[in-house]
Amino acid sequence: MAVDLSVTDNPLSIPEQVLFEMAARVNKKRGFLFVSKVLGKHIPVHPLKPLLASGLLALEYAERKTGRELKEKADILNGFLSGTDSGLRNAYRTLQKQRVALEGAPLVIGFAETATALGHAVYDCIENASYVHTTREQIRNNEPSITFVEEHSHATDQLCYAEPHMINNNCPVILVDDEITTGKTALHIIRDIQSKFPRKEYAVLSLLDWRTEEHKQAYAEAERELGVTISTTALLSGRISFKGELLSESIYDYKPKPQESAINRTDIDLSGFFATLPYQPATFADEHFYVKETGRFGLKASDRQAVHEACRLAAQHVEQYRKGRRTLVLGTGELMYIPMNIAAHLHGSISYHSTTRSPIHPVAKEGYAVQNGYSFMNPEDEEVRHFIYNLPAGAYDEVFFCLEKTVSDEALQPIFHIFKEKEVPHIHIVTLSGKA
């Protein structure tokens, strides 16, 4: 297969190779994937890089929205592009001072699972915004406020459990995704929101925008039909054309090999740092709950500082368990922002990324985005298969594997086999909520 692309808009002049590489998707509906190098999902990154990419996206939107130039944006961009620890940290300190206030106190919605942290970090930059992310999890005894379909995804059904006070108003809605190719997913959620909680203004923010003129026309038609405005902002926009056969299955062996050696394991309970919510996952017994700080059920503008303080204190606690110099912090599925923020507070050589539901075909070839991969059943929901990509052998002294809920030792065995195979000497199992 081959994908040809041409860039039509690059407002910050960020080189394409900084933002993404390409890979083959195992999907009958779409054959390719732009694998982000700044998202912290499939490729390990410095944990501040996704936070800065999100910030640049938020600031670009704010400038277009208000017509006011943000003078510090250039310094933030330069630090982001530097790729150095000091440059990234200086840029992030500058970003934290650049929060903007927008008219109407917007609601930011991040799309699960890939853009939950991206959306959260956009919310961080808008002083008077609230935040919620969509989810693919079923919540016991609760009806979602919004439902829609992500047609090209491996798991298509999306739900949103925003509290009524967050969504039942006329505030602008800012939808955040890592990439829009056709833009249909955003239109699906806009139509569902508009049918239940009508308003006048929507915005769609993404790192990449590959919509054709036909797709853009669909947005214009939706604006006329619904009586709304739908603006779009991206760090890079362009055109793509695809040739080749779709990959409906992969011959790659994703299974970890059973390891006989004993595991060096530490269990870290962070439940004391985060607020437990009275919502229960449908796939767990009643005593398991979620934590507020993820944003799955909504965060107000006034919650922002408490989330950051919880992550800072949790990172101080985690630091005491460090066993080596080269550390990987690994999020799980939709649980991206909290582990990312904790990782950003750690010192030394820190990498961050997350497990995913997305099946991608690995190829050990220079310039290809996914060099290797492993699959396992999600310890928090053993009906859902997850993947980890791009784990170099011998690259890490330790890994902090982060979970929202307590899971059984049996469910963790595939994770242990993966990291033993990759010669990681120590594995920390980090749990946010535990049992009530």
TrEMBL record:
Ranges for domain TRSP = 293-417
- One Pfam family assigned to this protein is PRTase_2
Q: Which InterPro entries match?
A: PRTase-like, PRTase_2, PRTase_dom, TRSP_dom, UCP020967
- What GO MF terms are annotated? glycosyltransferase activity
> Which CDD domains has this protein been placed in?
PRTases_typeI
The keyword Ribosomal protein is annotated on this UniProt entry: no
Gene3D superfamilies on file:
3.40.50.2020
Superkingdom of origin: Bacteria
What are the Orotate phosphoribosyltransferase-like domain coordinates in residue numbering? Answer: 19-238
Record keywords, A-Z: Glycosyltransferase, Transferase
From the Swiss-Prot or TrEMBL record, give the protein name: Adenine/guanine phosphoribosyltransferase
What is the originating organism of this protein?
A: Bacillus mojavensis
